[in-house]
Structure formats: structure tokens, C-alpha cells
Amino acid sequence: MQSIQREIAQQLKVQAPFKDWTAIDAEVNRRITFIQDCLRNSGLKSLVLGISGGVDSLTAGLLAQKAIKELRTNTGDGSYRFIAVRLPYETQFDEYDANASVDFIKPDEHHTINIGPVVKFMANEVKALQGKTAVSRDFVLGNTKARIRMVTQYTIASAYDGMVIGTDHAAEAVMGFFTKFGDGACDLAPLSGLVKNQVRTIARYFNAPEPLVEKIPTADLENLSPGKPDEVSYGVTYAEIDAFLYGEPVCEKAFKIICDTYYKTRHKRVMPFSP
């Protein structure tokens, strides 16, 4: 079991557990430098990130805003900026948390774009959705929401000559818990390799409000199950996923679910198949 866990952890470049505050500080600064290098190498000046209200986008936003502030200070170039985007489908289930995240991050710019009309138009135009069960239709449109959000973020990034930030980390990557070419599409992923608890730890490093840090994670893509916890979708907990990625013992059921899901979703973590 542990050999399989080690192999998967290596594939996902899982970051070693933080030993102390010094290690956390070093990792935060390494990732901030990574963000800055991405911008410098691209020749662009803006970062765009969708803020959902969860700890992942909160943490990515805090890293991005600090990276941008340092770039402005160190270069004297005031054109660097971080743009946070709220992308609700009509009224978001956790609207309060999303707004609280934006308020705490204090981005240089903040936009709110309701994706509801676009998703509904798509649903009405796509004949393949007709005749599907309510549950099946709801699931399909959940992925559509994620892809419309991606398109919106890239539209904003293009308008501002910027890059799109993703929020994927190791605990989601191992479960394939992202929409292919939706929230899985980005130019840089500053949380990559972190387990869920490490994402929370970095949020605490920035003194983020504890209710946001410990908020129950949810993709909130399904209208019929608003705020559905990620762990319900997984069938395992984030604590079990983190332990698995660290090579620690997990129960047989959790081990099987994580491994089966990892291999089943492999296509999401690779480039498109080609002959």
C-alpha cells in the first residue's frame, strides 16, 4: 500500500509536511516568488483569480496579492495588479463567505459577473440535454458552470494582458475533483503539491478568519444539492486524503476509493490524447 501511496505522491509532487513556522514561512515565500517569476517570464502585469468563498481561492488570492504588492514595491512599476473575480450563478449559496474572502484579501480590483444568463442560454440551446433526468442534467450543467467561469476569467485576463490563477492542490488533484477545461484550466497553479491541511495552514499564516479557513469545502456546482460537501462526493475525508498522500496508514476502504478515483481520473491530469 505504501509503495502505491509514494508513487502517487511523487506524481503529484506532494510537499513534505511543514515542520515548524520557519518551514511555513519559507514555503510561502517560495510560492510568492514562483508567482512573480511567472509574471516576469510572461511579460504580463496582471493576475486574475475567481474567488469562490472557499479556503483554496482565499489562500491563492492572498499569495497573489502579496506577490503583486512586492512586485510594485521592488520594481517601482505601478501597473502590476491583482484582479479578484466573483462568478456567482445567480445568488450563490455561500455568498457571504465569498464576499468575506474578497474583503479580507483586499485585491487591487474586484469584479462580479453573474454567469446565470449564459449557462441558462446554453441549457436551452443544447438539444442533447432534453430528456435527461433532472439529476443528470444538473450534473452536466454543473460542469458547464465551471467552464463558463474559466472562459470569463480568460476574457478578463486577455483584456488586462494578464494570467489566470488556478486553485488546484494535491488533495483535489488525486481525486480528479475539478472540471476538465473548467476550474482545471489556468496559467499558473500556486497551490500545486499542497495537501488540504497545508492550504489551511498557509491561510492561517496570513491571519485569515478561522470561519473561512475551516469552512466545509464545497464545489457548489449542483442546483439540486447546493453547498454539497466535497467529502460527500468523494466518499472519504480530506484528513484521509492528506494521510494517504503523506504515506500514512489509511483504512482499506479509503485506500481503495482514493486509488480507484486517481486512476479513473488520470485523463484530467495529462495533455489531450494523441496518436
Give a brief description.
Homodimer. Keywords: ATP-binding, Ligase, Magnesium, Metal-binding, NAD, Nucleotide-binding. It is built from twelve helices and four strands, in the order H-H-E-H-E-H-E-H-H-E-H-H-H-H-H-H.
Description:
The protein is globular and about 55 Å long. α4 links the parallel β2 and β3. It contains twelve helices and four strands. The mean pLDDT is 96. The chain has helices spanning 2-11, 21-42, 55-75, 95-105, 116-125, 134-159, 170-173, 196-205, 210-213, 230-234, 238-245, 252-264; strands at residues 46-50, 81-86, 109-112, 162-164. The chain has one domain: HUPs (Rossmann fold, 3-Layer(aba) Sandwich), CATH 3.40.50.620. α2 packs across α3 (55-75), α3 (55-75) packs across α8 and α5 (116-125) crosses α6. A four-stranded parallel beta sheet has the order 3-2-1-4, sandwiched between helices. The chain has 275 residues and is an alpha/beta fold. 52% of the residues lie in helices and 7% in strands. One of its GO terms (molecular function) is NAD+ synthase activity. It is an enzyme of class 6 (ligase). Pathway: Cofactor biosynthesis; NAD(+) biosynthesis; NAD(+) from deamido-NAD(+) (ammonia route): step 1/1. It catalyses: deamido-NAD(+) + NH4(+) + ATP = AMP + diphosphate + NAD(+) + H(+). Keywords: ATP-binding, Ligase, Magnesium, Metal-binding, NAD, Nucleotide-binding.
Which regions are unreliable across 5 or more consecutive residues at pLDDT < 50?
none
Q: Cα distance, first to last residue?
A: 33 Å
**Percent of residues in helical segments?**
40-55%
Q: Supply the helix-strand structural class.
A: alpha/beta
Series of H and E elements? HHEHEHEHHEHHHHHH
Average predicted local confidence, pLDDT: 96
Largest sheet: 4 strands, parallel
Overall, the morphology is: globular
The CATH superfamily is HUPs
| Main β-sheet, spatial strand arrangement | 3-2-1-4
Count of DSSP H/I helices: 12
Kindly estimate the percentage of residues that lie in beta strands according to DSSP.
5-15%
CATH C-level category: Alpha Beta
CATH architecture: 3-Layer(aba) Sandwich
Q: Please compute the radius of gyration using only Cα atoms.
A: 19 Å
What count of domains describes the coordinates?
1
Beta-strand segment tally: 4
Family: Belongs to the NAD synthetase family.
Catalytic activity: deamido-NAD(+) + NH4(+) + ATP = AMP + diphosphate + NAD(+) + H(+)
Organism: Candidatus Pseudomonas adelgestsugas
Enzyme class: ligase
